[in-house]
UniProtKB/TrEMBL annotation:
Protein's name in the database: Peptidoglycan O-acetyltransferase
Organism of origin: Saltatorellus ferox
Pfam short name (any one): MBOAT
GO cellular component, one term: plasma membrane
Transmembrane parts of this sequence: 6-22, 79-99, 119-138, 317-337, 370-389, 410-433, 445-464
Molecular functions per Gene Ontology: acyltransferase activity
Membrane topology: Multi-pass membrane protein
Enzyme Commission no: 2.3.1.-
Subcellular locations according to the entry: Cell membrane
InterPro entries: Ac/AlaTfrase_AlgI/DltB, AlgI, MB_O-acyltransferase, MBOAT_fam
Amino acid sequence: MQFNSWVFPLFFAIVYAVYLALGSRRYRVQNAWLLAASYVFYGYWDPRFLALLALSTGIDFVIGRKLEASNDEKRRKWLVTLSVVVNLGILASFKYFGFFIDSAAVFLNAIGFEAHMPTLRLVLPVGISFYTFQTLSYSIDVYRRRMPATNDLLGFGLFVSFFPQLVAGPIERASRLMPQIEAPRRVTAGKVQSGIWLLIWGYFKKTVIADQAALVANPMFAEGAWQELHGLEPFVAVLGFTIHIYCDFSGYTDIARGLAKLLGFEFLLNFRLPYLATGPSDFWARWHVSLSTWLRDYLYIPLGGNRGSRFKTYRNMFMVMALGGLWHGAAWPYVLWGSYHGVLLVLERVILDVSGKNANDRDYGLRGEWVRIVLFWIPMLIGMAIVRCDSVDQFWHMMTHQSFELTDTARAGLLTYAYFSWPLVLIQLAQHFSKDLLVPLRLPVIGRSLLLAAMILAMMVFGVREPVEFFYFQF
């Protein structure tokens, strides 16, 4: 079930009405109701996916209990290894088996061997990358004794499958979400108010900005069309995808956080104005924060982080970003995109090491900050082109067939982006200068009501009618 489908509002209305009727005193019954609703939500795509979800839940619940009960370090290492192998094995089987087999076949054919490789075409379960990382973090944290194992199977099942963030995040930590599940929630007026704002803002970003940008950009990347792009058209295509992917993914996150607030929960903040980043490390402190911090805590630091030599630090940064790219998708463009950002992070770190400065230094004025923001858009757009292009030839064409010629197609695309994106620019500038992501809620009641009404009207008039699947569902 998609947030932007016609059935979801009815689904949530029923879930929410029963949830409120049960009352916070019966929070365990509320948990059972939310768990049932989450399985209905996920099974709406394909009921067969529910078996994997239940399997992942059961394995890590049992392993967590055994890790908690054991003081034998050898046994505990075996148990956490089992969790890692099983979870990543399931993920690899469904998401990466075909990719590695196809890549091996291409390589063998390239060096002169005729390869007849086995094929296993499995349907990729929606959101498997997200809930796999979520359950893994639980087992690892229990192993590290950073949190106790839960003995509440129902609550743990809700942690794994909670429908607002099940399919596309944010990737929650058990240490943060389980205490909310295992205690009564209060649905306050403040949470309802901010939840409604996040819901409307998220739907506006998705249906009005992201989907409209995709209508312009996607045809330009199509086979037979990208070969004809020239002038500013390649730039317009990449810019459209850049607008689309951010408003699509952050829109989903806003909706998820809004739904959670209406239910009395608090989710991680997954985006902090990433297109106002001043450099690579700042970008990854703002973009998909739940993933970047997961990779830091469960991959970068265990690899050694920055505790070794400079070379090992650079190696660890690059490896983590390359694997982060592979997490996004079983295709070489994603690996190259992650590797590209790994190179950017390493180059930034080399410059900082040589100059003796820190990435968090803010010894420049407002003008210097905006210069860095504008300059970082160049490598960022190149990265967006890498992840969007389907082949090296397509990427090379996009990079080499550009000029300042403003064709009719380029002009129409830029005008479309400007027409639908100006509210995003204004609101995010207000959030940036006020250092408050909920600054629209600080408006007077009349101003706030007019803003929300204007966005609802815009969705009714300009929103793409046919539901368009969220981009990150494929991950």
